From TrEMBL:
Its cofactor is FAD. It comes from Ruegeria profundi. InterPro entries: FAD/NAD-bd_sf, MnmG-rel, MnmG_N, TrmFO. The gene is trmFO. NCBIfam families: gid_trmFO (TIGR00137), PRK05335.1 (NF003739). Belongs to the MnmG family. TrmFO subfamily. Its main location: cytoplasm. Residues 5-373 form the MnmG N-terminal domain. SUPFAM superfamilies: FAD/NAD(P)-binding domain. The keyword Transferase applies. This is Methylenetetrahydrofolate--tRNA-(uracil-5-)-methyltransferase TrmFO. The keyword Thylakoid does not apply. Keywords: Cytoplasm, FAD, Flavoprotein, Methyltransferase, NAD, NADP, Transferase, tRNA processing.
Length: 446
């Protein structure tokens, strides 16, 4: 077998796809243009660099769909999850990682694999032959984006993704802030105190909202529209939807008790999550923003405990592109007009590190099986993997297709279970039990 699999893009999806294919016995070439050709969001040339948050979100594999996706990736010998587990940080019930060591470890693992070659060239066309996976992510280069549009005959859809700011821990006033995970969630004391909390009373909150609304924002380029993904809205956009929106979103005060004033219930709470193993950096949870840098420092220093905050990184805004996968891709993630090409990751219209890596895992296995002449069974629709790939390759409405996180709304109902909030716990457990059984069976047959 001499056919190679070429993977364009070394992010979460490309890295996982390369690992899966190589482990199946296929020679792989990763084409990663960084650092030779940079993007304004990436800071290194490492593979699997985490640009926005350092969180893989919930790790609960019985009551949360993304936690179930974690479980399925671990069961499939996933490189991204294995490396995340090795570099995890306390984050309550979530899986957060030390981002730089994580990316360095993924890069080292792929570089040392005997079947993987990494090149620094930029791919700007869609090849007519060979086996290819395009996993260029939301920051696909303009030249390649034009090639994709020319091939598909349709305009790429676009939305804007925002980056949350990172604060130096030693600049936070702990006489006002405290450490506590919401509802004290976590099995260890470290997990139960994984988040740093900054409380606001009503007057402070109202002044903060006024400042958000009045702050200078990044201007859009001509012809761009603000089609934000709802799971990653800038805080100022949320505040424009109503003055109470933030207080019922990332600034909700529930499940927390301020030890400095235990008898006073905060009107709102800003949470920060540890961003590195040393505990020297904290990112402000849910605080993606498109405010200009000067405005950010002014507004964020209105938060009690952050009056003298020093920022390791301020928030940002960038354009993310994705294809209309329900129209363009077949059930094996192949481009219908060029079946030698698969797409994977965020460019397919999934949202989030975990979902991106999961689609890379599937694309890598599907491509390797095709090269090796193997006949893989159909990906089970009742698994988290199956629910997600089914959604992007045909389950979603093409006319209104938007980026999607994995969620139980994508799963087929389980007969005989109650609907509504009261039946949710039993329903979610049934979804995860069924998914684990189906996914385990698929892995055994693959």
């Amino acid at each position: 077998m001499t056919q190679k699999l070429h993977i364009v893009g070394g992010g979460m999806a490309g890295s996982e796809a390369a690992w899966q294919a190589a482990e199946m016995g296929v020679d792989v070439v990763i084409h990663e243009m960084r650092p030779k050709v940079g993007t304004f969001a990436h800071q290194t040339g490492n593979l699997a660099e985490m640009v926005c948050s350092n969180s893989f979100r919930s790790d609960d594999d019985e009551q949360n769909a993304v936690g179930l996706l974690h479980w399925e990736m671990r069961a499939a010998n996933g490189l991204i999850m294995k490396t995340a587990d090795a570099h995890r940080l306390p984050a309550g019930g979530a899986l957060a990682v030390d981002r730089d060591p994580f990316a360095e470890a993924v890069t080292a693992k792929l570089r040392s694999h005997p079947r993987i070659e990494i090149t620094g060239d930029e791919v700007t066309t869609l090849p007519d032959d060979g086996h290819w996976i395009f996993a260029t992510g939301p920051l696909t280069s303009a030249t390649l984006g034009e090639a994709i549009r020319a091939e598909t005959g349709a305009e790429s859809l676009a939305f804007f993704d925002a980056i949350a700011p990172i604060v130096y821990a030693d600049s936070i006033d702990m006489s006002k802030a405290w450490m506590q995970s919401r509802y004290d969630k976590g099995e260890t004391e470290e997990e139960r105190t994984a988040y740093l909390n900054c409380p606001m009373d009503k007057d402070q909150y109202e002044a903060f909202i006024d400042a958000l609304l009045a702050a200078d924002k990044t201007e859009f380029h001509e012809g761009e529209t603000a089609g934000y993904f709802d799971g990653c809205l800038p805080i100022e956009v949320m505040s424009e939807r109503g003055r109470e929106t933030l207080r019922h979103g990332p600034m909700k005060p529930v499940g927390l008790t301020n030890p400095h004033q235990p008898d006073v219930k905060p009107h709102a709470v800003v949470q920060l999550r540890r961003d590195n193993a040393l505990g020297t950096l904290f990112n402000i949870v849910g605080f993606q923003t498109k405010m200009k840098y000067g405005a950010q420092t002014e507004v964020f220093r209105m938060i009690p405990g952050l009056e003298n905050a020093s920022f390791a990184r301020l928030g940002g805004i960038h354009r993310n592109t994705f294809i209309n996968s329900p129209t363009l891709l077949d059930v094996q993630m192949r481009l219908k007009s060029k079946p030698n090409i698969r797409f994977a990751g965020q460019i397919t219209g999934v949202e989030g590190y975990v979902e991106s890596a999961a689609m890379g895992l599937l694309a890598g296995r599907l491509a390797a099986a095709e090269i090796l002449g193997l006949d893989l069974p159909e990906i089970p629709k009742d698994s988290a993997m199956g629910a997600l790939i089914h959604h992007i390759t045909g389950g979603a409405e093409a006319k209104t297709f938007q980026p999607m996180n994995v969620n139980f709304g994508l799963f087929r109902p389980v007969d005989g279970l109650k609907g509504g909030r009261r039946g949710r716990k039993d329903r979610y457990k049934a979804y995860t039990d069924r998914a684990k059984a189906e996914w385990t069976c698929w892995l055994e047959q693959s």
